[in-house]
Every structure is written in C-alpha cells, then in structure tokens.
Amino acid sequence: xxxxxxxxxxxxxxxxxxxxxxxxxxxxxxxxxxxxxxxxxxxxxxxxxxxxxxxxxxxxxxxxxxxxxxxxxxxxxxxxxxxxxxxxxxxxxxxxxxxxxxxxxxxxxxxxxxxxxxxxxxxxxxxxxxxxxxxxxxxxxxxxxxxxxxxxxxxxxxxxxxxxxxxxxxxxxxxxxxxxxxxxxxxxxxxxxxxxxxxxxxxxxxxxxxxxxxxxxxxxxxxxxxxxxxxxxxxxxxxxxxxxxxxxxxxxxxxxxxxxxxxxxxxxxxxxxxxxxxxxxxxxxxxxxxxxxxxxxxxxxxxxxxxxxxxxxxxxxxxxxxxxxxxxxxxxxxxxxxxxxxxxxxxxxxxxxxxxxxxxxxxxxxxxxxxxxxxxxxxxxxxxxxxxxxxxxxxxxxxxxxxxxxxx
Amino acid sequence: xxxxxxxxxxxxxxxxxxxxxxxxxxxxxxxxxxxxxxxxxxxxxxxxxxxxxxxxxxxxxxxxxxxxxxxxxxxxxxxxxxxxxxxxxxxxxxxxxxxxxxxxxxxxxxxxxxxxxxxxxxxxxxxxxxxxxxxxxxxxxxxxxxxxxxxxxxxxxxxxxxxxxxxxxxxxxxxxxxxxxxxxxxxxxxxxxxxxxxxxxxxxxxxxxxxxxxxxxxxxxxxxxxxxxxxxxxxxxxxxxxxxxxxxxxxxxxxxxxxxxxxxxxxxxxxxxxxxxxxxxxxxxxxxxxxxxxxxxxxxxxxxxxxxxxxxxxxxxxxxxxxxxxxxxxxxxxxxxxxxxxxxxxx
Lengths: 408, 347
Fold this sequence. Notes:
The structure holds 2 protein chains of 2 kinds. By secondary structure, chain A is mainly alpha-helical. Helices cover 66% and strands 3% of the residues of chain A. Chain A folds into 2 domains: 45-173, no CATH class; 200-406, MetI-like fold, CATH 1.10.3720.10. In chain A, α8 packs parallel to α12, α8 (200-236) runs parallel beside α16 and α13 (302-309) crosses α14. In chain B, β7, α8 and β8 (213-218) form a beta-alpha-beta unit. In chain B, α7 runs parallel beside α8 and α11 (255-262) packs across α13 (337-343). Chain B is globular and about 65 Å long. Classes of the chains: A mainly alpha, B alpha/beta. The A-B interface holds A 1-3, 6-7, 9, 11-14, 237-238, 301-303, 305-313, 321, 324-325 and B 60, 62, 66, 90-96, 99-100, 102-104, 107-112, 114, 121-122, 125-126, 149, 151-152, 155-157, 159-160, 170, 173.
C-alpha cells in the first residue's frame, strides 16, 4: 500500500466538531460531568451503601455476602438493580480485557471498536436475561432468592470473634426498621429515615438508578416510535403522511399526563418497566413531528436524490442516509426528554401510582408530604431538581453546539 | 460521420411530463424527444425550467410521482421501455447501467459518510463485492478520476474536500459500476472556471476509456462547444433544435439558438455586442399558444402564435442531420439568423 510517507489522515467527523463546540460551553461541560458522576453513583451504589459486608469472618469461616447479595432478589428486588449490579461486576472485567487486548493487538482493535462494544453489549444482555427471571425454561434459577437475608450488623455485634468490612454506609434501601421510624439525620442515618425506618440516603442513592433508567429507557422507546413514524411520514408523503400525521394529531389532543395517569391506574401490578413503557408510548408525538419535518427537508436535498439515482432501496436511504443527517435535533430532544421523563416518573410515584418496590425519589417526597418531615422533602426534592437541571443543561449545550449559526 | 443507422442506446420519444400543483397543471415537458447513441456525448441546452433536467429525471424514474406524472411518451434504453419497468428493475438499472451526477458537488455527497463508504455502497449493492474488494475497487476508481492520494481520501469526509475534488468523487461514484450511460446534470456549473475545464477534460477522457455515452445537461454553450458531438436545444418543455455541435455552431437554424449565441461574450467580438434575449421564459402553467418562443422572437409572424411548428430537417444532402422547429426558417431556409438578430432588423 502507499501508507509510506503519507501523512496520517485526521478524521474530523461531524460529532468531533460538535464535541469541540460543546466543550466551550461551561454549563454544558458541568452538566456532562454531573451526568457522568450520576452514572458512576448509579452503577457503584452498592459500593457506597449496602447492609451486606464485603467480607464477613466468624467461626464458620470467610464469606462475601456483598457479592452474593448483588444478585439476590431478597436484597435487590428490582430488575433495574440486577442490571446495574451486573454492570458493576462486568464493566471492570470488560475494561480490563479491552486494555489487555489493546496492548497485544493495537490499532487493529481500535478499528473494530464498534463491533467489540456491540459484542460486549450482547453478552451483557444475555447474562442479564439469564439472571433476571426466577426460572429459566422451567428450571429454578439458582441465583434467584439464593440466601435468606441476614442482618450482618447484628451478627457482628453479637459475636465478639466475628469481623467484617462494610461499605461506607451500611444500610440497604429496602431494609425496614420500625424502631428507627422517622429519625432525623444523624451519623448513622445520614439523611434520616422514613416512616418504615428505611434509610433515606440509601434510597436517594439507589433512586439514581431508577431515575436514569426511566429516563434512558422511556426516551429510547419513544425516540424509536417517533423516528419510525416521522421518517415514514416525511419520506413517503402522500397518504402515508396523511394517515400518520392525523394519528400524531389525535395523540397530541390527549393531555399526556392524564393519559399516563389513566394508563398507570389501569395496570394492577405496576412495575417500573410498566412506567417506562407508559411514558414511552405516550410521549413520542413531538419526536415524530420533528423527524417528519427533518425528512421533508432532507428528502429533497441532492444527496438523497443522488442516493436514489444510485438505485439504493428506500429503506436504506431512510435509515442509513437521511436519518444520521436528521439526528441532531432528535439528540437534543432526547436529552430534554430524559429530564422530563424523570420528572413524570417522580410525579407518578409522588401520586402513589409508581412502582412501590423501587426506591423512587417521588415516593420519598410523597412520604415527606404525608409525614411532614423536612429531610424527607429536601433530599428527594434536591435530587430531582439536580438531575432535571443537569440534563437540561446538557440539552441546551447540545442544541447550541449543533446549531451551525451559533458556531464560532 | 457514420452513415449506418444504428440502434441508439437511449431513445426518448414524445415525452410529456406534467406536475399537478394546487394552482394548476404545469406542463414541464411537452412532447420532447432525443436519441443518445453509443459512445457519444449529447448536450441538452436550455434556460432554467425548460424541462431538460425533468427529462433526465424521467429517464431514471426519479420524478416525485404524486405531483409529477408522465402523460405520454416512451423512454427506451437498450431496447427496454423504462416507463413500463417495475420499481425494482429501475433500482437495478440506476447507478448500475445509467448513472447521474448532479450540479452541486457541495451537497450531493452525504456529509455523514466517508468518501470511501459512499463509493463502496454502489459497488456492494450492484456488483455484490465484499468490503475488502469494494475498498480496493473504490481506490481504483479514485485513481481513475485522477484524485491525488486516493487511499487516504477513502477515509476522509466530504467537507474535507474542495468542490472540484467532490465532483471527482461524485463521478467516481457514478462510474463505479461502469454504466453505459452517464447523465451529467450541470456538472460544472457550481465550480470555478479552471476546475470546470479539468472536470470536462476528465469526463472526455473517461468517456474514451470506458466507451460510455454521456448526456450533458447544461445552459453553458461554452461547455457544449468543448465537449458535445450533438446538441439538443430545449425551450419551455419542447425541443426547438437538434443538430451536430459543428453544424449548430456553424449555422443555427432556430432564432432562439441564434439568440443564445448572441447573449454569450466572445473574445474578439466588438464591445457592446452582447445582446440578451428579450423577455423571459414563459410560465409553464400558462404557455403561449403556437410556437412557445414567439413572444420573444424577433422573427415572429402571425402564424407563430396560431400553430405549433414541427421539427423539420434542414441539412443539405450529404450533411449530418440538423432539425429545427420554426416557421420563419421554413420560409427562409438559408437566412443567417445570427447576423439578422444582431442587426436587430427583423424583416
């Protein structure tokens, strides 16, 4: 090849331009860092707060209740927690393997990075699907409800020969303790406890997982619906457009929040996934209209015409030629969408129609309202405010960075 | 000159395209037709909106069909009627046997893909090459269009290239499957003059190397003189003159063509001799009756607004065919239209 003497090509892609622009916006950079911190907190929550010690030693020998507890449905009931716990265990392994492989294979690996990440995601999803259900093909999942939950703090106090290493804050978010009901913040319970004696700090921490998942999953769902509907309507026009646009208009006529309330009330055994789906299927209209408008603009542009002149099938033109070009406004609306989905979930939990089994901030806020305790209002209130603000900052930064008119 | 009548590569006959808009029916192309022979360059000349691009789009079946509609006509490519072809069949032909390059190299390339990916797409789609084979072939194609450092360009994005280079990439994409026919819709209009010359030269060389036919759509008579063997002049959806380039430039047989020549600056001509054609292109929704040129024609006669002129052969025996549609020329076959128009003294 003629690689010799040729200067290295600098691939200045569109998104690296946007990234350069985004980095100038201090608030957006702060927002991005805050989101990263939130993600780290969500994944690493058990490292900070858990009632299972990392290791425990007594007359019967060593054990690691923390590690076993990560996948124990009595310690972590929600599948959301299982997802993040799996991530906590596997992410370091993936990263280590990547670093090692990069050492040996170098550039070849970097070129295949995309495929590698996709592969890891598939492996991860399969493991998650294997871990989550109680039975797999009729066979009982050995990891499901593995151990009866023991109070290791009590065991440690009772046995003078035992030793244990606890996380920094040794309370779980589901652990109830009627004796310490509604106790104010203290060295033991950093943010106090609620009506059932559950630790508010732990609930705030694990609530990050719920909020981020709600945001990402609900938005992913409604972006998907909105993009498909909008792309088909915008690209094909004619009766397809008429039909889909009227559908969107009918959807817009419903007051979204009341629709969500009604749908949520209709489901008897609500889980957090129901809430995600409900938010997802009620909020896609804005994205659909946005994408339709983008497609109306892009389908007439010369590159789309050139693609048609090349004999490329419509499906490919829509999804791999036009969609990437139309994705900038979708990205911005997704970022704002995460913030608003989090807010909607909190509102649902506040009204008592969320998932009662997860540590939702809205639920704690509701407890603060009924029990009239300041710490029960301030902590989740601030958490919700912070996350929503942070995502809005990122969204605004993205919007400005993607706007070529504002580019310096 | 070949005297043996051979089957043309592309034959467009009596094509009419209408656009149904909310304000009425626009007759964008009205009974136009031309032949493209194997290996030749045919120039289609005319002002904006004369239907030259619409005709080309109709060949590829690219007209947006809710507003546009092919009312009549026949488009025959290698003996196959393209107007009757199924969408799947058209997709097979497009980019494979007939390719098109567009006016705006700045916007005809997809900004989110690398140059290599865009060239490889057609290769993989139509010729079923693997990724590695397609990449090798793409690199060859960039070499073919005289792109410096082709291997590196493959990994660059369109915005990293200049206008001329982008047009070269467009040509490489169009030539990827070695088409029999290349439709170039104003390929040099958006480029600098020096780059224009390079691109035209490149097209000429590639035509010789690959033996394809080119339909060059342009409003630039300079480009026509440099590249085309035969010329079709269109006005308001109709063909007004059809001739070899030599014969057309030597002696135009239609007042509109004569007017086009006079509106061009030329070296050596006296200053102030530039003469625009009076008036403007008629509104395609509201075409004049009879000959469409007559409101702007210095030679207009009463009959011109009453009846449609037909394309009539004008060449002397032994000369290549030269047709035009004009009542004045019917009467005065030997009139020097250019001189008469310049003097501004129509009889």
